[in-house]
Design brief:
With 131 residues, the chain is mainly alpha-helical. It is built from seven helices and no strands.
Length: 131
């Protein structure tokens, strides 16, 4: 359910939602709705309560990402922190893995706990959900 919703969001953005106006603050001004994403706008505007919001979709997919792999407890804790960083920034770059607050896990935590293939998978996964 979440990938079709994200595809719908992307189609709406490309076809009717000019990049210059793609900010939640502009949606609030134009429609007087307190939303933080285009999905939240669609949910609120169309009054579809069952439509999950962006955070819920991201959290659910992070859960699936973690469950589909054999991560240890340190890796899972780190990935939960990555999830929080992602939700705050709505994107993830490799550089983010070495900055606050992820640097609390140690200077080389990411290299110690993850292989390059896992890093690539994580970045590719995050790109699918970048807002």
């Amino acid at each position: 359910m979440s990938f079709p919703l994200l595809k719908l969001k992307d189609q709406l953005i490309r076809k009717i939602y000019h990049p210059k106006y793609r900010r939640a603050s502009n949606i609030r001004k134009a429609f007087n709705l307190k939303v933080d994403s285009l999905l939240a706008f669609v949910r609120e505007f169309l009054e579809i309560e069952a439509l999950p919001d962006y955070q819920e979709i991201v959290r659910r997919n992070f859960e699936e990402f973690i469950a589909q792999r054999s991560f240890n407890s340190n890796q899972i804790r780190f990935l939960r922190a990555v999830e929080n960083v992602f939700l705050k920034k709505r994107r993830l770059d490799v550089a983010d893995l070495y900055e606050e607050p992820l640097d609390r896990f140690g200077e080389d935590a990411f290299e110690r706990w993850f292989r390059q293939e896992e890093v690539d998978e994580l970045i590719e996964f995050a790109e699918d959900f970048a807002a």
